Amino acid sequence: MVWNGLNVTVNIQSGTGENPEGAVISFINQDNNPEHRYDAIAPPNGTVKFTDVWPGIYELNVLLDYYSPYSLQNISVFENITIDVMMLGCFCPPGLYINYFTNELCVIPPDWNYNTIYYKGFEDGIIPFGWTQEFIDSTLLWTVQTGSPSGFPDHAHSGVFNASFIGDSASTALILPELNLQDAVLPKLSFWHAQAGDIVQDELKVFYKTSATAIWKPLSSYSYPSTWQREWLSLPSPSANYYIGFFGDAKPGGLGI
Q1: Phi, then psi, of 49 in degrees rounded to 5
Q2: Which of 33, 72, 73, 176 could pair with 60 as two cysteines, CB 3.0-4.6 Å apart?
């Protein structure tokens, strides 16, 4: 069998408008195989293309003088993908932050507190109003259950109900309503998930896009844990028309997401 490999394109921009030439890029497979690590130095246009990339779950690290280090973990690479990176300057005095999208100098409190822009649970017993589903493979729907229909886990993290996706060789995206993150500073997404399994575990992939017509881009992916676990993900490129999708990938023998 001939392996053709996958293509991963990394587009680097600086918040100051300067070209990101010289940025050090490391793209590392979490299987710890040294042959599945890809390194490059960014050219003036900031675009680097890795070819013949081995499939798997990756971590991306970017270093550039006078800018804060960039890191993105749990990147699912099973098809050709493009990752956009915005480097933020780190030359402000302590306690200050430059928002290069508005050219404003902002004060950061000693203890950074986040305001909740959008919060939604499933205690109404149905998929919330405004959420949509996009079939990727088959026509299996996300549903609202108590725990997983398989019984693993047999309870919601809190309250009574949670969203669930379980089936056989199916993939469907559960998509939040459009969010306005245009004025958000360093926005984050927080959620709880569980994916039990023995030999096979279903996979949860989180994607985002910056408009209704934009292309979905990967944030992270998970094929664990068997008990409830909380995740925090930074949301890149905040916009006035922001979308977040939870892509469920149900596999034969999996016990559900």
Answers
A1: -120, 120
A2: 72
Is 106's pLDDT higher than 50?
yes
Beta strands in 18-150 (DSSP E): 24-29, 37-41, 47-53, 56-63, 70-77, 81-87, 96-99, 104-107, 132-137, 143-145
- CA dihedral of 173, 176, 177, 181, whole degrees rounded to 10: -120
Per DSSP, what are the bridge partners of residue 235?
none
> Can you tell me the distance from the alpha carbon of 81 to that of 1, in angstroms, rounded to the nearest whole number?
23
Domains, the chain, in order of start with CATH, read 6-107 (2.60.40.10), 132-250 (2.60.120.200)
Find the mean pLDDT for residues 178-191: 87
Among residues 62, 244, 248, 89, which one has the least CA distance to residue 167?
248
**pLDDT at residue 68 greater than cutoff 80:** no
Q: What is the pLDDT of residues 222-234, one digit of tens each?
A: 887 778 888 888 8
CA distance 219 to 76: 8
Percentage of residues of the chain with pLDDT beyond 70: 87
Is 105 a residue whose pLDDT tops 50?
yes
Q: What size, in residues, is the chain?
A: 257
